[in-house]
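quick one, 391 residues, struct below
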Amino acid sequence: MDLPDFLTFKATGSLSRSMCSLVCKWGYQASEENGCYWDDSFWQSIGLQELVSDAYAAIGTDVKTPGQPCGQGLTVTAAEQLGLVAETAVACSMIDAHAGGLGSIGCNVDGDPFLNSLPLRCRLPVICGTSTCHMAISERSLFVPGVWGPYLSAMVPGFYTSEGGQSAAGKLLDHVIETHPAYGEVRDALQSTEYLQNVLNSNLEKLSNKKCIRLAALTSNLHVWPDFYGNRSPLADASLQGMMCGLTLDRSAANLAVSYLATVQALAYSTRFIVEALTAGGHNIKLMVLSGGLSKNSLYCQTHADVTGFPVVLPTGTDSMLLGGALLASVATGDANTCQEAMARMAGNGKALYPQEEDKSYHEKKYQVFKKMVEHQQAYRKIMATERDNI
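---
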């Protein structure tokens, strides 16, 4: 039982399973053409045929779409523990990133009727924190090499979800910052109300002005391949490793800021790499909606707009994952008939960041370097593979 299902079980006593958890993590088959079912041959092929016995009693057959009510609502015990009323409706849940996608995908943009008119299938929620998920949806089943899915009703009921991702995003920025020789110097100079990445963003602006070049161009001689924890999408190669090209003996705080900037840019190039795979697979992305911890980093967000060429929408107000949970609750209580109806009422507004054309040519060249780096890594492995055979 996955955590979303365990939480609803503890709240209601119901053993129902979430379609989101099952299609994404448990190999449950769901499509509009063939219906929903457990695939016996899958469990047998991996030596877990006992899960097929007793009509799948061990893994469940009461499968609900997120937002459907579970059981009879809160049990008396759960209600007492939570300080709520027994039989309060409890919605079938979903994975945290999917809740963030549900809570952000319908966000309206202040002052931009065109972006507001774009259908959900043209919006790409990017839930960016320690790692990052890129959650594209479509009305039909689209198989994209190197991207998880398609999963029916995993995020927006009735839509298929294709889930790309980066195994390390915020964690990678932390690693690059904290392992740099100047980290202690910059950290110790922080005021109590300052956030280190915001200080680095400010330092980069000062360095840009001092050198009389655009901020993005500070990394012209420093390039990063960001898969320090393997590549999840679109190469789906956990053995890939991180790369930095252009290292020097510079141990200064300025060099720390530039190393951080090069890593921010690399994460944006990685997002572009994923979006290009989604597009080749049939998706039609027109804008990105960012939520999660990294969406509070202005440099990270603007760089994503500049690199991908898409407007980046930043929801204001409520945390998108919490809002996604509230949307599901509104459906479970009957306040809204569908998640789409709930989104129309509750999705809220946000502001848009637009691509800066001045940096377009620069990022095109850096992106060429970005793709060459992984080609080189793969070539180096082939060279060394012949030597390993002799060891």
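The CA atoms of residues 78 and 84 lie 8 Å apart.
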